[in-house]
Protein: Glycoside hydrolase family 32 protein
Amino acid sequence: MTVNRRMVLGSFLAAGALLGGRARAAEGSGSGSAAPAQPNNAHAEPGNAAAAAPQPVHETLADKQYRPNIHFSPSTGFMNDPNGLIFDGRYYHLYYQYNPFGPYAGHVHWGHAVSTDLYTWQDLPIAIRETEAGEAYSGCAVLDRDNRSGLFPPRTQDKPQPGSVETAAQKAAQLFPSLPEGEQERRSVDRQAQGLLNETDAGTGLLKELGDEPVSRERSPVPMSPALPPMAGGLVAIYTRATPQRQTQYLAWSPDGGQTLKDYEGNPVLDIGHNSFRDPKVIWHAPTEKWVMVVVRSREHKVSFYGSFDLKHWMHLSDFGPSGITGVDYECPALAEVEVEGETPGEKRWVLFVSINPGGPQGGSITQYFVGQFDGERFTPDDTIVDLTDFGKDSYALQTYENMPGNQTVYIAWLDNWQYCEELPNKSWRGIMTIPRKVVLRRDTSGWLRIAQNPYKLEALRQPAIPFALSRLEPQSSRQVSLPTGDAVELLLDVSLEDRASNLPDGDQGRAGRFVIVFSNRQGESLSIGFDGFSCQLWLDRSNLHGFSHPFFTGTFSSALIPGSRRFNLRIVLDACTLEVFANDGMSVGTALIYPANPLETLSLQVTNAAAVIHKVALYPLRKTMDCIEQG
Structure:
């Protein structure tokens, strides 16, 4: 940004503050104008249907069978996009789109959980509620360290930094001081669970208060203490308030380190008169010393950039798109500066992530990304290459964490797809988050910069490896091992497929041989991940699992690996109904929901008409980190 441009922007925002108005996009209209005739989103929300009271939800066998051990999922209700991902210096916050009244999209609130390791989560009370102003759609969170927004009252010696998050055990001791410790926690959990079941909506869209006690989802709650280090400001959320007529951007600030979020009295802070204008992601752009918001004009397939010095007054800077795959709607943009691996130390590029729904190449929901430059006003892609974050179809609406240690780029995405997310076999809860993934940029074999993504610090969950010594598989052979019952597992493989002997058959065994990983059970179900030596491609096949059937629940996916190379490595994480495959050090990633009718109990490694050298194989059970409340 030039000095003159900064002066203009500063004058504009100062004038807005002086007049008490809110900056609007030059092409937008005021709050009194009619919204354009376009839908406010591309997915129906049956959960919004008015009802006298939500129906009690009873846990089913499928609810237990498909509940992941290390992935975050809601105790009850419906969860979709991750929101407000931020590390405050002590805790990782996960806010999320949440309907507490049933396992369907609708009545959107912000749920909230915190963690010290991104795997062990403690649920907290709802952070932002649906109100008469609308539902609380997707958004983000930032640390306004210097109180540039002016939202935070002056700190005093008596109140240097408000905000502490109590454990459920600590809160239970206050609620039930005369009871033994274990009984205190049980009573506290029962009280919260019953409060959720007793919530009523009465068709008004206004929700009752849930109370202020956190809900522990763990047998050993995360020890909590004052979260934010001393600072003049604190945590601020920027999100979309949505009605069928209008979508506007709101501010909310936290007086207690992120536990509660209070709407700014001057909301909305950005209103361009659209009902398809949503999902703000805000970052601090240090070179131009301002906040930058990326937000989508969804049905127009545009990502809009806005600038602000105080989070309250915003000026339109530029637009990006339509570009890449447009689908029906753009959603959930994210802008991050990402390390370029293996080149000049400290070199980075900007990556713009844009989610698409529906219309992804695999069907339904998917996320694409662009690599380029961002100067504080405009994003310019380096080239015309458009790529997807995933070759499966169950990773959507990713959001990167703000304020990560070491400026690492780490994200969590919604592990689901709008094509079938409200019809899955589990009934009392729906919605799962991916495990956290670290992202870097790496050049592929053609020289293009592409993202490489891998599990973030998953090694900390590994338990002693399951013995599985194997160095070679001869043609038409296999080896198998039993899987631990009920555990999440991680499988590491480094394999070279040898040339096929000329006297071995062609046919459905692959012209140059295949290496296949099969998870199976005695009932004949199987889940396979395989490598074809002739095409150097990887496949994922969930079509022989019988726990869920749906017209859009695509069975097979594939990804091209390194052309001409018969060596590959895989890192596979299998956890209840989730499968995440990281190939060739994360250059190709596949994410899929899986629904076997019966638990998968055996792992087999197989080759067809070519031998394979096993450079590395390791199979780890993973320590369980999630333990949800048993609803009565």
Observations:
- Residues 1-9, 11-33, 162-226 have pLDDT under 50 and may be disordered.
